[in-house]
Amino acid sequence: MIGFIVAVVAFLVLITIVVVVHEGGHFVLAKLSGIRVDEFFVGFGPRVVSFKRGDTEYGIRALPVGGFVRMPGMLGLEGEADAGERNFYRATIPRRLATIAAGVVFNLVFGAICLTVVASQPTPSYVPSGEPTARAGLVSGDVILSVGGSTISYSSTTATDNDFYAAVQRSDGQPMQVVYQGTDGADHTATISPELVVYAEGKSGTFPSKLAGDALVITAVNGAPPATGDPSSVLGGGSPVTVSGFVEGDSTNRFSNDQISDVHDGNGTGTAHVGAAWRIGYGAQVPGEALLPALRDGFRAIPSYAVSLVQVIGQLFVHPAQASQQFSGPVGIAAAAGTSVQQGWVQYLSLVGVISLALGFFNVLPIPFLDGGRLLFIAIEGVIRHRIDPVRQAIAIAVSLALIILLFVLITINDINHLGGGVH
What we know:
Number of strands: 12
Mean pLDDT: 87
Number of helices: 11
Structural class: alpha+beta
Largest sheet: 6 strands, mixed
Shape: elongated
Order of helices and strands: HEEHHEEHEEEEHEEEEHHHHHH
Distance between the termini: 25 Å
Strand order of the largest sheet: 10-9-8-7-12-11
Helix content: 40-55%
């Protein structure tokens, strides 16, 4: 019950932050553009507290999720508040475009700043419960010094990741000696048996769609425990095999006797194929970057996320069932928020940054209810030299809102099935 409450509170705080940042973008550019802003509220529902400064009423409402900015004349419909020449639709096209686009820009920049702070923070190692390292007695904060006789470098995040990956893959799944410095400051040795993990994150190939979007621990191949050796060879070398196992990090979310094929070595990144690798379940400590490298990595996340989003959208037309698993609704985000809070503020801030980027890119889609749709309407107006019928705009916005709500309902059902053990 406590975990549920933590997840809900973490979700509400996260969504409120990223939405208020988004609405803050509209607010700032509207003010700079001479457009009147009547209200800027955090939350929805009845007013809890408010005050008025200038033309704008600021405050908090009873439902603590998100927020909104209200500008008169957003559509120019009869009965809307009238601010005369300061109405939204009476502003010049460049000012309206800037005001609407500012929400997206603020989300992207805020997300990049969050990830910049994350990149600059030293983070201790993390040992997830139930993983091979945890079963061998390691705990979060322990620093692995060598794996199978190979020393692990901590000179950079990339060097650490490469050293861990290479050392564990050399084991071919056989037990290996791991030397680590414990939280007591002393060196210890443990014998760890790697587990075989398959990465099915929306990749092509013959892989059951119900399993897409997860890292999967394989406990049986063709009815027997996984053999040792090269991961792809253990999994059939491209030929179909029947596998059983569970979703990494959730041993209660199990599957059995599912057929897979066309599995390649690797963690599934940068390739269209399903990847497989030996893993010990260990998040290495990160030293934290200097300001300029952290800024570089934080803002590089914007184009990187855009490329990933385009790839997933493209996969929707090729492998819709698998690609749809990459999207999370409120339930999935709440679960991730609850987990990240338990891991620490750095992990939570990282999730805030990613969700801010997601909200920014989602809003730029050319759907009437979203900012991208409003930008499209304004751009069309600039081409045809007259306003689009406000009633038609309102109808298009209402229809698109209904479709978005339906989409979120479907994604939420998928999240609930996923978290409730919908994979068997």
